[in-house]
Amino acid sequence: MEEFTQILLLFISTVLINNFILVRFLGICPFLGVSKQVETAFSMGLATTFVMTLTAAATWLINTFILEAFNLPFLQYVSFIIVIASLVQFVEMFIKKTSPVLYKALGIFLPLITTNCAIMGLALLIPLNGYSFIASVVFGFGAGVGFTLAIVLMAGLREKLEFGDVPGVLKGVPVTLIIAGIMAMAFMGFSGLISM
Amino acid sequence: MNPTYLYSLISMGGIAAFLAAGLGFASEHFKVEQDPRVGKVEDALPGANCGACGYAGCEAFAEAVVNGEAPVGGCPVGGDKVASDIADIMGADAGSSDKVVAELLCGGGIKETTKSGKYQGIETCKAAHSVNGGEKECQYSCLGFGDCEVVCPFDAIEMSENGLPQINYDKCTGCGKCVEECPRNVLMLAPLSGQTHIRCSSHNTGKIVRKTCEVGCIGCSLCAKVCPVDAIEMKDNLAVIDYEKCVNCGKCAEKCPTGTIEFQGRWIEKVEINDKCVGCTLCAKACPVDCIDGEVKKLHEIDQERCIQCGLCYEACNVDAVDIFYKDEN
C-alpha cells in the first residue's frame, strides 16, 4: 500500500509539480510549434505520452542491465539516442501495420518527437533519480500526461487568442512566449502541493 | 586491453545489432503494401518534413501526388529539380495532359502606357493596387512591381526593363502561384502549345484604350471575325481566346490593328500536298475548315480558297506529303 501511494504521488508530482514543459522547460519546440489547434496539440500529446512511456521502460532496462552492470554510465547518451530512435521507428512501423487509424492520427508527430529533448531528458532523469522499473514507467507516463496537459492548455488559449485584439508587435510567437511564461508561473503554484 | 573499452564495444555493438535486427525484422514483417511510386516520390523530396507544401510532411505530400491531389511541382523547397524528378516518376500519368504555363495578359509596359501620376508608396503590386492603382492610367494593366517574380518558387518570372514580367517556359511548372498573387489578374495559365496570345485584359472602350495604351485591345472584333475556328470571343470590349479551339494559324495577330495579339509561331504562306500522298485522309481529318478533298487511297488536294494556312495537316501527315512554305522564307 505504501508503495502504491508513493507511485501515485510520483505520478501527480510529474504531471503537475515537475511538469516537463512548464517547470523543467523541456520540449519547448513542439509546445510552441504544434499548439495552434487543440486537436493537433492533443495528437502530439498522445504521441509523446506513448513514446515517453515506452522510452522510460526501454532505457531503464538498458541502463540497469547493461550500462550499470558493466559500469558504463558514460554510454548513457549515445545508447539512449539509438534506443529512442529505433524504438520510435519500430513503433511507427508497428502502428502502420496494425492500426492505420491511429497511424493517421499520430501522423508526422511520431517521427518528430524522436529528436525531442523532453524524451532525452526523461531518459536521463530516470537513472539520475534512481527509480525502480514500475516507478520509471509511471514517471514516463506522467511526463507524457503533463506534456499533453500543458500543450492542450496552450492550444486552447491560442485558439481563443486568434480572435483577440493583440497589438501588432506581439502577434504570433511573442505573445505565445508571454503566455508560456505566465503559465509557467501559474504552475509554480503547484509546488508544495505534496512533499515526498 | 582495458576491460572498459571491451565492455563498451560489446554492449554498444550488442545494443546496435539487436536494434538493427529488430528494425530489419519489423520492416519486413510489418510491411504495408502501398503504391511503389509513393516511396519513389518521397525519396525524390528533400525529406525535411517542413510542411511548406501544406501537407503533414514529405510522405503525406508524396501520397497526395500519387493520388493526383497535389501538383508535381508542389514542393516549394525542392524547386525545379525535385519537381522534374517527381514529374519523371509520375511519368505517363502526369504527361498525358498538356503542360500549362503562366501567360501575361497585358502588353502595356512603361513605354506603351500613359501615366496618371507618380506612385511613391510601398513597391509591391498589392500595395499599389489597394492605394490608387499604381502609375499607369489603365486600371486593368500590369502594375509592374513584380509580386509574381517574388512569389514564383521556380524563378521562372523575371521583370523586364519595360516593367513587365517575362515568363521562362522551361522553368515554369504551371503551379499558378503568380496567378493567385496578381492583384490585377493579368496572369493566367495557358497550355504551352498555345502560340497565340491576346496580351490585354482591358474592358475599357476603344476610345479610352487608345488614350491610355498603345497596345491595348480596342474591342474592334476584327480578330474574332477573321478567326476560322471561332476561337476568339468578344467579351465586354475585350477579345478573349479559347486555347482549346485555337489552331495557331496566326490570322488574328495579322489582322489586329494595335498589335495586341502576339503570335509566337511562324506564319505560313501556302500549304500544298505533293505526290507522296497515299490517300490516308489523316490530313483531311485534321483540317479545321475541311478544305482538303480527295478520296481514300487517292491523291488529296487542298482548296487554297478555303485554306487558312494553320499547318495542322502538315503535323498530321505521316508520309511527308504536305509541303509548307513559310512567309519568312522569302
UniProtKB/TrEMBL annotation, chain A:
It is a multi-pass membrane protein. It is found in: Cell membrane; Endomembrane system. The keyword Transit peptide does not apply. InterPro entries: Ion_transpt_RnfA/RsxA, NqrDE/RnfAE, NqrDE/RnfAE_oxidrdctase. Belongs to the NqrDE/RnfAE family. Part of a membrane-bound complex that couples electron transfer with translocation of ions across the membrane. This is Ion-translocating oxidoreductase complex subunit A. It comes from Halanaerobium saccharolyticum.
Automatic annotation (TrEMBL), chain B:
GO terms for molecular function: 4 iron, 4 sulfur cluster binding; electron transfer activity; metal ion binding. GO terms for biological process: electron transport chain. It is an enzyme of class 7 (translocase). Residues 33-92 form the 4Fe-4S domain. InterPro entries: 4Fe-4S_dom, 4Fe4S_Fe-S-bd, 4Fe4S_Fe_S_CS, 4Fe4S_Ferredoxin_RnfB, Elect_transpt_cplx_RnfB/RsxB. Residues 1-27 are annotated as: Hydrophobic. [4Fe-4S] cluster 1 binds at residues 50, 53, 58, 75. [4Fe-4S] cluster 3 binds at residues 152, 172, 175, 178. The chain crosses the membrane at residues 6-27. Belongs to the 4Fe4S bacterial-type ferredoxin family. RnfB subfamily. The complex is composed of six subunits: RnfA, RnfB, RnfC, RnfD, RnfE and RnfG. Part of a membrane-bound complex that couples electron transfer with translocation of ions across the membrane. This is Ion-translocating oxidoreductase complex subunit B.
